[in-house]
Amino acid sequence: xxxxxxxxxxxxxxxxxxxxxxxxxxxxxxxxxxxxxxxxxxxxxxxxxxxxxxxxxxxxxxxxxxxxxxxxxxxxxxxxxxxxxxxxxxxxxxxxxxxxxxxxxxxxxxxxxxxxxxxxxxxxxxxxxxxxxxxxxxxxxxxxxxxxxxxxxxxxxxxxxxxxxxxxxxxxxxxxxxxxxxxxxxxxxxxxxxxxxxxxxxxxxxxxxxxxxxxxxxxxxxxxxxxxxxxxxxxxxxxxxxxxxxxxxxxxxxxxxxxxxxxxxxxxxxxxxxxxxxxxxxxxxxxxxxxxxxxxxxxxxxxxxxxxxxxxxxxxxxxxxxxxxxxxxxxxxxxxxxxxxxxxxxxxxxxxxxxxxxxxxxxxxxxxxxxxxxxxxxxxxxxxxxxxxxxxxxxxxxxxxxxxxxxxxxxxxxxxxxxxxxxxxxxxxxxxxxxxxxxxxxxxxxxxxxxx
Length: 452
Description:
The protein is mainly α.
């Protein structure tokens, strides 16, 4: 491919998106640059504090428990009170609680504060995803989600290496640095992002025929809940890169900096490959892509059973990272297509519940298996879970998601256009007006497009 072709591809990947999206993208990047706590929590507790793998798993599970509650609460708050205040309050609370977590030393206090951090950290995620869907027109959303996921992993790649080096000298500095960057993210949200919660179009009250969306509505959506179940299994696999892998590498004699370098490969590969791979897969069958990515994730982590050197650990990270690159935009785009406009916060919250629940279960699973059976069986379990998830996606998505959405989707699509148009017409402040007038109203060119 020529240099000019590469330039055109890069320009097509970023052009036409509203300015509000780029402020949201910037806040995501800043937030992920401070991703010290969850990445290094297991190593901090086992090597620095001397606790067992089971205790480290318990603390990480409490972090996940907070996330489980936050996914539902955050989704409801985003729909009821707005995306912007939910994000600002959650991120401010995260900054404060992370700083406290770095200062406390009592094991019970550490566990309790970790649960608070998990709640605060996850409460903003449904609002972020809903705001992105509000701001960006439907034809550009896969690309926008991929760019946002790209920002997550760019920040993750940088923070993994930097935090690994910081941890060699001072874990407290890592906690405080994370808190400062999270607070900066909250300030960006407060100063630069508009409120985007869709309002009903004029005259579109009870006559519009759109039923109210509650958590019960989401729970009764059988196909969506099946997708959430498969997502939970895949999330269990990916979580082991953060909870099982650092413990296993530590027990094998590797340092925190070694783990930081290995896991940074995950972020670097996503930064390099996410956009071109998404351009390639965007119009392909999402069911098939999710089957392939699930199996590849399971067997990618499963290959860790053969890892005894830094090179082999890095190779296994490369394999399951390819699965993540395919899974992330495909799964997120599917969730948006299956969600009604005025229930996006709740649907995103329930979808986020699959990852939060995995963050609760995965540490308990990895800690128990490593302590009682050995790390080898953890990686075998990952391969089994990947196989089950792949088979599940094959059954649940045997027909195209667009077919089901299209079946009852005329009103949904009309509501989507109305909601997006409302954002472009009235919700954005004057300094975003030029971008809103073109991109948010739906006139941007059709283009092509982690978790997280």
